[in-house]
Amino acid sequence: MSDSDTSTSVELLTFKLGGQEYSLDIMCVIEIRGWTRATPLPHAPSFMKGVINLRGTVLPVMDLAERLGLPVTKHTNRNVIIVVKHENSMTGLLVDAVSDIITIAQDDLQPSPDVTSGSGQGFIKSLTLRDDQMIRILDLAHVVKILESDAA
Amino acid sequence: MTNPDPMAEIRASFFIECEELLEAMQDGLQTMDDGQQDSETINVVFRAVHSIKGGAGAFGLEPLVRFAHRYETVMDQVRSETLAITSDLLKLFFRAADHLSDLVRLCRDDMDIPQAEGDAILAELDLHAGATPAEEEDEDIDFQPLGLSLDLDFGDDDDTTGTSSYRITFAPATEMFETGNDAVPILRALADLGDCTTTCDAERVPALASLAPETPYLSWTVMLSTTAAIDEITSVFEFVDGLCTFAIEPVDNEVGFSDEAFPDLPPLDLLPEPEEVELPPLDMLPEPAEQISAPVEDTPVVAPKNEKPARTAPASPNAVVRVDLDRIERLVNLVGELVINQAMLAQSLESTTLSPHSDAMRGLGEFQRLTRDIQDSVMMIRAQPVKSMFQRMSRIVREASAAVGKDVRLVTDGENTEVDKTVIERLADPLTHMIRNAVDHGLEDTDARIAAGKPSQGQVRLSAAHRSGRVVIEIKDDGGGINRPRVKQIAIDKGLIPADSTLSDSEIDNLLFLPGFSTAATVSDLSGRGVGMDVVRTAIQALSGRISISSTKGEGTTFSISLPLTLAVLDGMVIKVADETLVIPLNVVTETLTLRADNLDEIQPGLAVVRVRGSMVPLFDLGRHLGYRKQKETYVDDIVLLISKEDGNQAALIVDEIQDQRQVVIKGLDDNFYRAPGIAAATILGDGQIALILDPSDIVTQAAQDAGHPNVPQKLEA
């Protein structure tokens, strides 16, 4: 992939979350792995599922649906953990299922409407349409950053 | 990772080198202070200062160059024996050395440099330099290994304004090229000093057929017109001293040499920029006078007092590789993986029905042994001798004793004892504090010492030794010892203990560690900074260490710190609470016991205590406080761990099961992400699951806050 490509198009990993289609920039995805039991952290916010052993690294895992304020679905064996890296720290995001890798032209991305209230505020960076289906592109920095109020 | 700025990298390595040079310098000064003032030692110090100056010049660190230069000038007079070493001069050298290290650090961090102190030291240095009668010596001496005598009538070289001319002849010997030196940098350095005209004498070059490529045939004559003093010119030849023949003769100014006299020579400014003048690497130099004391291994060596250590013949240079810390971290992490993997493999093999004499099981045993060896070796990479820290402490002693007007000598022992780098770094602050305490509170005034029939000079002994898998650091003063009646009275006055308590000597001594305790009647400039021994103890405990105190009236006080060799592994107790596996650091657990109806008391709902030999210890249910389960109906028959908290109080933690005691590899939790209260770190168990490592003190503090748990009064009884 050359530099000119990245400026005009972006590759996204799409996944399902509570019946909706979400996506992340594939460049921040390290790997995708199956669900394993996490060691719970005491007094953690409810969306923090705990920590798992990722080949020797202690990886914190969060339930992305809960993090975004979506209805919590029961975990099944189909659930996967997307391991993402943001500013040198790695996080596991628990999602329902991974769907596809798509390439979207930069021009087709629309900024998400400015919503000042609502539980999911600020998590969606931009939106795009594909086959008449809306795909939400997550702002990873926002997702993995735990605010003081979240942790309390 | 690539560094975008190669210059920054070179700069960084210069400062690393500086640290080594400063260490060598301190070492040399210490040796001189111990009475060994041979030319070898003086040379080591001189070269260290000189190399710092050279490097600093290349990076344009003006203040550093200026100070180092004047320091070096005085040093050079000592070296050439025109200036005698007195104890005053040595003290000044120590101060100048301290200041030089400050300057290096300030330059490294790009900070502003305060002028005053440097100027004061410089003034004193100049005084010494100026006090020396200028000595005239015949400059025709062709070659002298220790440099020529330098104090000609040029006065202080900084003040010299007139231009003088010199004829410098220079002929390299074969050894010069063998040691990796080159003639060009020397000529370049000369050109740097002033206007010069260089002639090359190629007469000795033989016919090509008989030319030996390694043999130097050329020699040079340089006519130099410069404002620099002759010692500056001599210093150009510093590093090729003995590897060439050179002579510097002053030439009458009237006989000017112009370029016309040598029309066929290229002007020297065609040569590359003078910044590239490179000092030869330091390892060419004779080995610095270190390794004086024998390495201290398992047995603590008590060095005879005030005796010169047996000086071994200069050891051959240590082959040292400088490795990026990140790479070591990575290696340490990988070895951690290996240990975990090996445990997992062992666990799964044991669950099969293999015979213990099968090849697989025997192989596993071998594998375990290898893993342990690898782990030990890797941990040793991070280990560093405590020497650098001890040197910092000798500076603390100098400053502290000057501040309180006491004559104090620091004696160090076992400075080659190796400890994990992180441990050393984090030990510096508590140790500084304890050393200051020893000087300020531990030692008596000079008058009191003389009255007690002790030598007027107080002594603080700092020693390090390996003892049964831990490192023990002792700070011992020969002062008056702890004034126990006074300590007890203060503790009573401050309400730390009941007035009628009877305490043993060691219990009184331990009162010093209580928060809010300070014995100094007047808050002194030095140690009364609101930091008590309790902070020292907290810092030591944060390193999984223990601190103890012992004191004999009239003979002094000893603080003894016992530390693990590494922070990467931890001796832990593996416990189970509400089906979660957890690890508690073994060093905080004092004992385990089972709750029975007759030692368990409920004070109010949710608040219970256990009676242990007469004292009431508050009970905390780990499962409930970690949020793993609800409050239990009864605690009878539960297992509790008695832990000693950092403030000296005890607490009892209820657990479901004690599984094991073992070494675990510490995995840090990412603090940026989410900081779980009461959790210090994590580890990976044999089955691949993560277990959290608890911070018991934090849990108890948190739990007490959550529940509005009143502080249960405790009787001080052992």
Overview features:
heterodimer; A: mainly beta; OB fold (Dihydrolipoamide Acetyltransferase, E2P); six-stranded mixed β-sheet; 12% helix; globular; disordered N terminus; disordered C terminus; B: 718 residues; alpha+beta; Four Helix Bundle (Hemerythrin (Met), subunit A); five-stranded mixed β-sheet; 18 helices; 22 strands
Descriptive notes:
The complex is a heterodimer of chains A (152) and B (718). In chain A, 12% of the residues lie in helices and 48% in strands. Chain A is mostly beta strands and 152 residues long. Chain A has one domain (3-145): Beta Barrel (OB fold (Dihydrolipoamide Acetyltransferase, E2P)). In chain A, strands 8-1-2-11-10-9 form a 6-stranded mixed sheet. In chain A, strands 3-6-7-5-4 form a 5-stranded mixed sheet. The two termini of chain B are 56 Å apart. In chain B, helix 1 packs antiparallel against helix 2 (39-58) and helix 9 (325-350) packs antiparallel against helix 10. Chain B has helices spanning 6-33, 39-58, 62-79, 87-108, 115-131, 174-178, 183-193, 230-236, 325-350, 359-382, 387-404, 421-442, 446-451, 484-493, 505-510, 533-542, 622-625, 696-706; strands at 164-172, 194-201, 219-226, 244-251, 383-385, 408-413, 418-420, 458-467, 470-477, 546-552, 556-564, 569-577, 580-585, 589-594, 600-604, 607-612, 615-621, 639-644, 650-655, 657-665, 679-684, 690-694. A 6-stranded mixed sheet of chain B has the order 14-18-19-17-16-15. Chain B folds into 5 domains: 1-133, Four Helix Bundle (Hemerythrin (Met), subunit A); 137-286, no CATH class; 325-378; 386-564, Heat Shock Protein 90 (2-Layer Sandwich), CATH 3.30.565.10; 569-706, CheA-289, Domain 4 (OB fold (Dihydrolipoamide Acetyltransferase, E2P), Beta Barrel), CATH 2.40.50. Residues 132-160, 254-263, 268-280, 282-315, 521-530 and 709-718 of chain B have low confidence and may be disordered. The longest helix of chain B has 28 residues, at 6-33. Chain B has 718 residues and is α+β, with helices and mostly antiparallel strands. Chain B contains 18 helices and 22 strands.
